[in-house]
Amino acid sequence: MKLAMIYSFLKQDLAKIEDAVNETIQSENPVLREASGQLLHAGGKRIRPVFVLLAGKFGDYNLERMKAVAVSLELIHTASLVHDDVIDEAELRRGQPTIKSKWDNRIAMYTGDYIFARSLENLSTLDNPRAHQILAKTMVELCLGEIDQIQDKYTVEQNFRNYLRRIKRKTAILIAASCRLGAIAANATKETELALYRYGYFVGMSYQIIDDVLDFTASEKDLGKPAGSDLLHGNITLPVLFSMEDKEFKQQLVDMFKSEEELTSADIEPLLEKIQSNGSIERSLEVSDQYLSKAYQSLSELPNLRAKQTLKGIAKYIGKRRA
Amino acid sequence: MNTSEMNIQQLKQKIASQVRHPFLAKFIPEPIIDEDKLVILSSIMDHTTLSPVKREQYVITTMLVQIALDTHDLVTLTDEDDEKETIRTRQLTVLAGDYYSGLYYYLLSKLDDIPMIRTLAGAIKEINELKMELYYKDVDSFQEFLASLKKIESLLIQRVATYVQKTTINDMAGEWLLAKRLIDEKTSYQEGKFSPVIDLLVRKPGSLETSTQVMLSLEQMLQKHITRLEATVSQLPIHFKWLKSYIHMAIHDKFYEKPIVEEG
């Protein structure tokens, strides 16, 4: 089953959000308008708006209020992708040339900042200081997470706590914030809001762990990049952390990272084989499953609504994701 | 909060401690806190009825936005031959700018100040639109170019001034910040450093064909602007006494390159 099928009952509302997202980035400047639209028109799962809408179903669901939050979160995510492509020197995203490759880094910076500003302007229509506090904190954490990622690159002396904090900041908190802000915008009870926040956090952790596993197990075609790219770029993910329990593996990695600039896919091939066969993939998936169990547990605190089944379905889909 | 040398230095320290990040500090230069903008903002806030906490937070958050915008202007273009260090500096410059933007939002959200969040976000939006225009549009005239540059330099402060309903020094701020920017660009260029303004003028010639012509035009423009600025400053109301003397000193320091001795 496709992910979009799971939340198909939100189709109409999601279409309205899509329109609102497009409207929000209609700059008078033609280059800015084209650049801003470039990434949004290339598609994307719009998973953050989905979480906002589903969370809103547990309170007083008002589409205008939901829209303010959903549009802003999607735009913040988009702005961060535009800047991420400058950081990663990416040429393609969602099969389309990135803004930095179609224009240049400067245009990408202006575009990302413009989208960010539009996002905040849009959310300022929601007169709820707590929503702003949560989103603002999330944004700061997101940046810190990305800085951590650069700091931790090619560093083998790191532990599970480093990794978990990094993926929390990188992925989980924005999903958690989407769920929480949806609940806040719908004036849901505090208990509901926190249960949804926990759900989002746990699902986000699971999602990122699976993403990190897929980097070793999925095909180049599915990934759109060669397998093991994370490791090649010095990112130590969960399967690598488990593999490093083997001292020989760790030493090999240390030796390899000494010549990090000349590292090629062929160089890391022996390590990839070990990761794929030493049980670290299975152990990583177990950790992901544990997070998913916690996500289900968080849902158990919520009333039995269709949205609850949908959130369960999304968690299940994420847990089974293998490509 | 009354603007004074001591007060400005204290504000500078508070802003510096906000943007301090140990890992960033290791690899990218500490952000420059534009003291002139700080003085203008602080002087604007002096004459509002806002609480001292709010005045200070408005100055700090506006400066954080300015620092974020300035930091993103430092992101270099990609070159195939870029070395690892260059790439890492670029990556961290992108993230630092995002981080400083996040901080402005975070601080104002803690004050529950949604209207100010909107004011600053609106200014960021407009400034990026202007920057894009300037970057992509052929320069039709030097005047038009300067008008855009002036807006880019002063729009943030002017939007804040309008928000707190203290617009008396808006014109002066525009003149001063443009003149200052041109002086900085001229100095950079003369020192053999990269000057985005002069580069843009030389690259997109229009009626300006050589760097010598550009420099000559720049010099003439500067003279005109300084004269206009001095006239605007002298018209400021008496309660801007400290600001007036600050700007007079700054004009002499930066433009005439000979510091004047303070009276008394």
From TrEMBL, chain A:
It holds the Pfam family polyprenyl_synt. It comes from the Bacteria. Keywords: Magnesium, Metal-binding, Transferase. The keyword Metal-binding applies. Its cofactor is Mg(2+). CDD domains: Trans_IPPS_HT. NCBIfam families: GerC3_HepT. Belongs to the FPP/GGPP synthase family. This is Heptaprenyl diphosphate synthase component II.
Automatic annotation (TrEMBL), chain B:
InterPro entries: HEPPP_synth_su1. It holds the Pfam family HEPPP_synt_1. This is Heptaprenyl diphosphate synthase component 1.
